[in-house]
Amino acid sequence: MQLPAGGAKGYGLAVLAELIAESLLGKPREFNWLIIALNLEAFRPLGEFLRSGDAFLDELKAVAPAPGFAEVLIPGEPERRSAAARSQSGIPVAPEVWRSIVAAARSVGLDADGLVAVTG
Q1: Do 4 and 32 sit in the same domain of this protein?
Q2: Are residues 74 and 97 part of one domain?
Q3: Which of 10, 32, 52, 60 is the most buried (most CB within 10 A)?
């Protein structure tokens, strides 16, 4: 059995999203997609909204991390860090995986080693 990401809170958010989507769109056929677009300035000036969001994230980052963790991360932060690291050093590929890629390329007449920069 697959459990929802985020435990009970993730389950609650998933139920809420499905409730809204199914109520608006009807029973799902393959996938129900719901996109909510808001005019932020209908609620408050854009600059104020952005400052408030930044302050919230700063407050979140200032929370003491759980034991065994160096810092509190916000959604997307690990992915941005990984992308930045890959842009500097490339995407690591295990040697056995690279050998299979090279073999597959050779089987169709390509020289995989000549197509990419191999480091390490």
Answers
A1: yes
A2: no
A3: 32
Tens digit of each residue's pLDDT (9 = 90 or more) over 36-84: 899 999 999 999 999 999 999 999 999 999 999 999 999 899 999 999 9
- Nearest 5°: the CA angle 111, 113, 118 is 165
Count of domains observed in the chain: 3
Range of the domain at 21: 1-37
Between CA 21 and CA 29 the distance in angstroms is: 12
Look up the pTM and report it. Answer: 0.55
Domain match, 50 and 82 both? yes
